């Protein structure tokens, strides 16, 4: 069983590393509700324009990101994630009004935002925790995409972007004292997440 003493668990990581599956496992074991932050991202992008909030619209006018250099796509992802920090904190605030634990998962959770949420929760006596899943092998992520989206072809460029972004997230998590858990081996990832959260709680 997963320790569900926490009120909100932030589960970050790059695209294609298994966050949604891990979140579902954690939710089943802890009785938590899953919030997909990508849904919030889509909503705030629909509600704003590039003139109103350029940071939320970095990919506007780029229907195919494979035409861009991998590093450039990662830069745009980071800029978008940074712009979404207030939205993440708002989602956390809302979940704290409901007496059911929540797992908030998504690509655009940054370690900086997660660390701030943890600190703000501590001030009001609420237990918010965060962990990031990490996969640095583009070939593994390519295989993950192929299994998840079999009709989309071989998404090697997208996987390279994801692996590079995953490394950035892992590096940032280390800077902010947020635990990082390797995705593999997959069979015990939920157990390893639980251990990482336990260690983080004991050190705080």
Report what the structure shows:
- By secondary structure, the protein is α/β, with parallel strands linked by helices.
- Helices cover 52% and strands 12% of the residues.
- The chain has eight helices and five strands.
- A five-stranded parallel beta sheet has the order 2-3-1-4-5, sandwiched between helices.
- α3 crosses α7, α4 runs parallel beside α5 and α6 packs across α7.
- It starts with 7 loop residues before the first strand and ends with a helix.
How widely separated are the two ends? Answer: 22 Å
Which stretches are low in confidence, meaning pLDDT under 50 for 5 or more residues running? none
What share of the residues lie within helices? 40-55%
Q: What kind of sheet is the major sheet?
A: 5 strands, parallel
Give the helices and strands as they follow along the chain: EHEHHHEHEHHEH
Number of strands: 5
What would you report as the Rg, rounded to the nearest angstrom? 16 Å
What is the tally of helical segments? 8
Question: Class by helix and strand content?
Answer: alpha/beta
Shape: globular
Please report which band the strand proportion falls in: under 5%, 5-15%, 15-25%, 25-35%, 35-45% or over 45%: 5-15%
How would you sum up this structure in a few lines?
With 204 residues, this protein is an alpha/beta fold.
What labels describe this entry?
204 residues, five-stranded parallel sheet, 8 helices, alpha/beta, globular
Produce the secondary structure layout.
Blueprint: E1 8-12, H1 19-30, E2 33-36, H2 37-47, H3 70-83, H4 85-95, E3 102-106, H5 111-123, E4 128-134, H6 138-148, H7 156-175, E5 180-182, H8 189-203
Parallel strand pairs: 1-3, 1-4, 2-3, 4-5
Helix pairs in contact: 3-7, 4-5, 6-7
